[in-house]
Specification:
Subcellular location: Membrane
Number of strands: 0
Helix content: over 70%
Number of helices: 13
Mean pLDDT: 77
Order of helices and strands: HHHHHHHHHHHHH
Low-confidence stretches: 53-59, 152-159
Pfam family, one: EI24
Main location: membrane
Number of domains: 1
Oligomer: single chain
Largest sheet: none
GO cellular component, one term: endoplasmic reticulum
Structural class: mainly alpha
Membrane topology: Multi-pass membrane protein
Distance between the termini: 65 Å
């Protein structure tokens, strides 16, 4: 009974924390500006009040503006990519197939009937990761500089980052591979021929994946490597299940994956704010090792590539 209670509390707490980003936007700029003003020397404060110089304007926080710009930009980029795929790339490939097999329209029709679903399914399987990369690039420009350093929890202090550039690159590449494989894993479990079970498992996967997306900025700036981030989610999965639930449900409601992608890209920056403000509930007794299979596969792929590189190097010598 106690385990059920802890699970429920963690789930509800995660769900509530995921919505905090919306409320944070209403007071965040004011709080950051007041904190910056309180740290300013008295002479600087007086000058800013009496002389009303331009530097005061430059110090003002504009997190709300940047978040709104990021949401609009993310949605526009994603919608544009979908339109290009649907109305430029697919028609071009179809025309090419028609030209190649023009002497036999039946063969051209059969080839396109096979290629079109394959191309569409491939595009649907990988749309979250490219979208995440675009969002990460846009959001990180202001998040780390303007927000994360000022809003990290008191116990973490200033951003710690990782010890070397090579470690940052390796961690980022490994993280992208794990996330891509985990996305494929979620789509595979959704195909289970058991009523509602496959969809439920897919929803759990997406909740944890979206939680990883949302908290990754915060944890990366705290110096956490990928294995620590994944272990933390697996060990406290009820909280992160609740945290990722709103975004996972919002993206699964639309029947069109175009609308679903736009919903994700628009709301994702707000969930980053929620992740930075949240304090996860700890202490779950039963870890959920959903990331372990893709981590094992990723490790095997990295070892294979490294061994191949070593063999090529030895041959060149």
């Amino acid at each position: 009974m106690e385990s059920v209670t802890n699970f429920s509390v963690s789930l509800i707490k995660g769900f509530i924390d995921s919505l905090r980003g919306v409320t944070v936007l209403l007071y965040l700029d004011k709080e950051i500006n007041e904190r910056a003003l309180s740290r300013s020397p008295p002479s600087e404060v007086e000058n800013s009040k009496n002389k009303q110089k331009q530097p005061k304007v430059k110090q003002e926080s504009k997190v709300l503006t940047r978040v709104l710009q990021s949401c609009i930009l993310n949605g526009f980029i994603f919608l544009l990519s979908i339109l290009i795929f649907e109305y430029a790339l697919l028609p071009a490939v179809k025309y090419l197939v028609t030209v190649v097999f023009g002497h036999n329209p039946g063969v051209a029709h059969n080839v396109w009937a096979w290629m079109q679903p394959f191309l569409s399914m491939t595009f649907r399987m990988i749309w979250v990761l490219p979208l995440f990369l675009l969002s990460k690039l846009v959001n990180s420009l202001w998040f780390q500089v303007r927000y994360c350093g000022q809003r990290l929890p008191p116990q973490t202090g200033r951003p710690q980052f990782m010890s070397s550039v090579s470690k940052i690159i390796a961690d980022s590449l490994f993280s992208l591979l794990v996330q891509a494989l985990f996305l494929v894993q979620s789509m595979l479990v959704s195909m289970l021929p058991i009523t509602y079970i496959g969809e439920l498992l897919c929803l759990v996967h997406m909740c944890l994946l979206y939680s990883l997306y949302s908290f990754e900025y915060k944890w990366f700036n705290m110096g956490w490597e990928l294995h620590k981030r994944l272990t933390f989610i697996e060990s406290n999965w009820p909280y992160f299940l609740g945290f990722g639930l709103p975004l996972a449900v919002l993206t699964q409601i639309p029947q069109s994956y175009i609308i679903s992608g736009c919903v994700f890209s628009i709301f994702f920056p707000v969930f980053i704010l929620s992740g930075n403000e949240a304090t996860p509930v700890l202490g779950n007794e039963y870890p959920l090792r959903l990331f372990s299979p893709v981590v094992a596969i990723s490790n095997g792929m990295f070892r294979f590539v490294r061994q191949g590189a070593e063999v090529v190097t030895q041959r060149n010598r």
